[in-house]
Amino acid sequence: FLASSGRQSSFSPGVTAAVGRQQSSRDAVSVQGDVDESFGEEGVPEGWVLPKVPSGQIYLAEVPCLSDYFPSMNIRNDMMVQALSGGSPAFWNRLLGPDDCVIIDPICGPDRPGHKKALLRAGPRPLLHFDPQKTVAAIVTCGGLCPGLNSVIHHLTETLVKNYSAQRVIGVRGGFAGFYNRQLTPLDLTVSRVDRLQHQGGTLLGTSRGGFELDNIIAFLRAYQVTQLYVIGGDGTHRAAQKIAMECKAQQLNIAVAGVPKTIDNDVDMLDRSFGFETSVETAQAAITSAVTEASCNLPNGIGIVKLMGRSSGFIAAHATLASGDVDLCLVPEMPLVLEGPKGCLPHLMQRVHDKGYAVVVVAEGAGENVLGSSAEVDLSGNKKLPKVAEFMQHSIEDFFHRHNLPVTCKSIDPSYTIRSVPANASDQILCMQLAQNAVHAAMAGYTAFTVGLVNNKAVLIPMSLVTATSPRCLDPYGRVLERVLSTTLQPSTLPYRPPKGGLDSATQP
Ligand SMILES: Nc1ncnc2c1ncn2[C@@H]1O[C@H](COP(=O)(O)OP(=O)(O)OP(=O)(O)O)[C@@H](O)[C@H]1O
Ligand SMILES: O=P(O)(O)OC[C@H]1O[C@](O)(CO)[C@@H](O)[C@@H]1O
Ligand SMILES: [Mg+2]
């Protein structure tokens, strides 16, 4: 059922397993993408060759399904939609089978042979585990704010009520504490209550850190006869949601627990990106532009510093740097901070100021732990508190310039809360809608303990156990994002040298 149930891995062989809960006649996993008829039995068509690397077996990550443990209503999804829309044809164009899947890593080559891991494709399914009209759903938002929280609440409610005719949608207020804090009375979410909500920043339901009382949460779910719980949050929230799903199973409660991953930090693993991330990167551009203006107008030798969020990973800082193209130094937690010497960022900044007249620094809040040390203090959720790296950098820059008898003017900007309190941009709005709709489709079909996400731009269901095992994720220090950052800022890499994969020898071979 879940990782902690003793199962070795969440992946099960797809091709040979004849998988199938709702449909068992198929003998192979069908992979997302159109079947090309020209690759028939006649052989390889002209212009195509067989790869030297065998394509291998497919393994499908197993998402727990309540139909395996409880009697299922087995209501036909298309008939329900037909009934709702007054007898007109169903509007779900394609109902997904139990083994429609998306391959996780689409890159193949000589160093990636063997089997492929795949995830269940998300979407409306032919048979519903729950009777939608008897469905009581609860929605909760936890952790820090993130653009798009209200959009997910809006689309979850609309999908549940408008598309599935759910009986009741309850909004749990103030994060996990809302399940048992009597001052935080739950909100009834209706279509009119969430109308245009997606255009507002923040969360209608409120959020909080800390305070996870499992017994009280289960007591709430029982008292309100909740059948589907939608938990919107980051890695911490997903760990909590997984515990709720496990407890539901232990107490034999027929409740689907769905995770909708939220974080501006983009540190929930396995996903292309989490909702809110792109909006935050976009909103950070205004701060970087202000830093450029301040730095370039304060003569001589202006330096603008922008501090961005990202406690354990530098996704926002790196992507904001790349999107801007105006940044001369980007500091992220994944690369050690080196102040002076041949790999030092301070001589590099001095050189940039010499070349351009000014310089701009973007620093992730979690950068520089190797110099500043790590704090023993934690927040209410147990997250480490961080040393003040932006202030430290400003002081170090001023000191370095003064030691070299050069004047310098540093202007520091901290847009941290500005970038996460705005409404989602257009692209995140669409992502929020996709995630919310697919979370409802999956819960209605009885899937539980899953996270909904985009992988290779396709909506998928990921077992929560997989997501929590490797989150929070970090940028690959030798990966292409940081490579691009270094190539635009020209800052020296502070990582040990690693020869490029393939190397010159293989590149020059015929
Ligand atoms: N291991 C855990 N077990 C139970 N509850 C947890 C666990 N980790 C975190 N939580 C609870 O989940 C909620 C959110 O956690 P946290 O504050 O770490 O935010 P998050 O979901 O990681 O989002 P973000 O870090 O992006 O703001 C808190 O109420 C916290 O108490
Ligand atoms: O001040 P708060 O609300 O605890 O949030 C700060 C944290 O939130 C995050 O953006 C994650 O949501 C982290 O990057 C940051 O450290
Ligand atoms: Mg977190």
From TrEMBL:
<keyword id="KW-0460">Magnesium</keyword>
<feature type="domain" description="Phosphofructokinase">
    <location>
        <begin position="138"/>
        <end position="442"/>
    </location>
</feature>
<dbReference type="InterPro" id="IPR035966">
    <property type="entry name" value="PKF_sf"/>
</dbReference>
<comment type="function">
    <text>Catalyzes the phosphorylation of D-fructose 6-phosphate to fructose 1,6-bisphosphate by ATP, the first committing step of glycolysis.</text>
</comment>
<keyword id="KW-0418">Kinase</keyword>
<dbReference type="InterPro" id="IPR050929">
    <property type="entry name" value="PFKA"/>
</dbReference>
<keyword id="KW-0808">Transferase</keyword>
<dbReference type="GO" id="GO:0003872">
    <property type="term" value="F:6-phosphofructokinase activity"/>
</dbReference>
<keyword id="KW-0067">ATP-binding</keyword>
<keyword id="KW-0547">Nucleotide-binding</keyword>
<dbReference type="GO" id="GO:0046872">
    <property type="term" value="F:metal ion binding"/>
</dbReference>
<keyword id="KW-0479">Metal-binding</keyword>
<keyword id="KW-0324">Glycolysis</keyword>
<feature type="region of interest" description="Disordered">
    <location>
        <begin position="6"/>
        <end position="30"/>
    </location>
</feature>
<protein>
    <submittedName>
        <fullName>Pyrophosphate-dependent phosphofructokinase</fullName>
    </submittedName>
</protein>
<dbReference type="Pfam" id="PF00365">
    <property type="entry name" value="PFK"/>
</dbReference>
<dbReference type="GO" id="GO:0005737">
    <property type="term" value="C:cytoplasm"/>
</dbReference>
<keyword id="KW-0732">Signal</keyword>
<dbReference type="GO" id="GO:0006002">
    <property type="term" value="P:fructose 6-phosphate metabolic process"/>
</dbReference>
<dbReference type="InterPro" id="IPR000023">
    <property type="entry name" value="Phosphofructokinase_dom"/>
</dbReference>
<dbReference type="InterPro" id="IPR022953">
    <property type="entry name" value="ATP_PFK"/>
</dbReference>
<dbReference type="GO" id="GO:0005524">
    <property type="term" value="F:ATP binding"/>
</dbReference>
